[in-house]
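Exercise 7.
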Amino acid sequence: MFTFVFQGHFNRNYGYWSTEEMWLAALATSLLLFLSVLAHELSHSLVAMRQGIPVRGITLFAFGGVAHIGKEAEKPSAEFIMAVVGPLSSVARGFLFVGLALRLDGVSVHLAAIAGIVGSTNIVLGVFNMLPGFPMDGGRVLRTAVWRITRNYWRATRIATMVGQAIAFALMGGGTAMLILDMGSWVQGVLWVGLGIFLQSIASASQRQSRLREVLSSYKVRDLIATDYPVAPVNVDLRELVEEYM
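Solution. The predicted structure, written as tokens, is:
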């Protein structure tokens, strides 16, 4: 999908390229973009592991990625550092690619064009991720702020996920309006709607997971162990054990 989008971009701005050049440049841009998303999530993971939080893996989606951490941060400051490092790395990487595009401008128009769009996309990715809606990084920053104020992790999570759902519905509404009113390209409208649906599904899942963890946090292992169980003599055969005792 992203290769198709980038091919359209190169077609509009570099119409003198051959068809093969456009598609190869679009494919290279897509690969670099998803490597950038992987680097974004790796920065989260490395900071988490430095703080003693295990990371089970990273999953890349069409609209981003998720680092699967083994447990939540134990204090707001730790979560804040984990949250902001991703967008900061994306913005830094974006400026690095933009600078590379400027250096390559007189050397290779193809490499300069690829580096330019990868750089600008990384900057947009970093800024977009700071929107204050969970599970985006900005939503995690919002959760740390509410967590510090209320001193209630679960309440902070609920507020952050509600804001995340509101942003998701806004994206879906904006994308639908773009499609209906013919504002911009239809590809942008579809991307907005798809991104909104993606964020809504993750925010809803995060909210359900948070509620489950909140409920289970009040239980101990001993609360789930049965203490009223049948006792049978050692010489009972299995049939009698099942029929009479179990």
